[in-house]
Write a sequence for this structure.
């Protein structure tokens, strides 16, 4: 087995006296548990993403009691022997922290360039793993931020013993994870698919008008034929062709008013322009 420890610390407002509103604290702890479940499952299962946060086969997460005079808790993740052997005893710690920082930074509106071969291999996959796991982490991260919602100066720090802070959550990151409702669907969003996961319906689209790549996910009513256009667009792009499509899609915005992704309701084929 292999144990990894980290601290989650709440600071500002009542947390400086070692107190948190009981409801806010319970929601935040539940969000932490769900976020760790999604992340740990993906880490030990070759990037497989599940949106339902359940117990992880191959690892257990333990929460230690808070210390007196502060609101700081120690979290321990214990990986089973088969998982350690599969990933490698000498690299699992560095790989896990690299993976967590990569995925959580994406979910929080930041960025982290993978540093370990294990995570760089996942980054290079055709499927848009990083964006898809960011969406899976949206709801858990919103819950984790709950104490910040009701206190102007509260912050949450994730840190490793003897290493230091890995991530910090504040009102800026809270605004990013708390998405606004989808707007009205727009027609004529032209571009080409750069990455696409056939199974999950999640992908990335280079949007001509915006001159940048934007994530997208599919409404359940999108037809099999329309999904084939997404695959063809991606294949054409890889062959050096335009592979242009036109989307009927709604914009999903962050709480800061930034475009986070498109919710796709329809796809039309344009081809080469």
């Amino acid at each position: 087995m292999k144990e990894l420890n980290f601290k989650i610390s709440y600071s500002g407002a009542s947390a400086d006296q070692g107190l948190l509103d009981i409801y806010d604290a319970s929601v935040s702890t539940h969000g932490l548990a769900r976020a760790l479940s999604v992340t740990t499952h993906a880490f030990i299962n070759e990037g497989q993403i599940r949106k339902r946060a359940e117990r992880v086969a191959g690892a257990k997460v333990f929460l230690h009691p808070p210390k007196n005079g502060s609101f700081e808790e120690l979290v321990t993740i214990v990986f089973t022997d088969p998982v350690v052997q599969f990933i490698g005893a000498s690299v699992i710690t560095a790989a896990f922290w690299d993976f967590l920082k990569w995925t959580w930074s994406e979910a929080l509106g930041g960025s982290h360039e993978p540093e370990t071969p294990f995570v760089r291999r996942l980054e290079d996959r055709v499927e848009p793993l990083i964006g898809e796991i960011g969406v899976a982490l949206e709801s858990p991260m919103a819950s984790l931020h709950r104490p910040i919602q009701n206190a102007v100066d509260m912050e949450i720090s994730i840190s490793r013993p003897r290493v230091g802070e890995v991530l910090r959550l504040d009102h800026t990151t809270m605004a990013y994870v708390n998405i606004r409702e989808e707007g009205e669907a727009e027609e004529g969003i032209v571009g080409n698919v750069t990455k696409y996961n056939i199974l999950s319906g999640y992908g990335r689209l280079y949007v001509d008008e915006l001159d940048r790549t934007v994530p997208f996910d599919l409404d359940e009513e999108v037809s099999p034929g329309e999904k084939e256009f997404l695959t063809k667009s991606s294949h054409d792009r890889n062959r050096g062709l335009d592979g242009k499509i036109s989307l009927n899609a709604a914009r999903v915005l962050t709480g800061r008013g930034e475009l986070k992704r498109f919710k796709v309701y329809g796809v039309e084929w344009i081809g080469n322009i």
User: Anything to note?
Assistant: The first strand starts at residue 2 and ends at 11. Residues 15 and 71 are 6 Å apart (CA to CA). The chain has two domains: 2-177, 186-271.
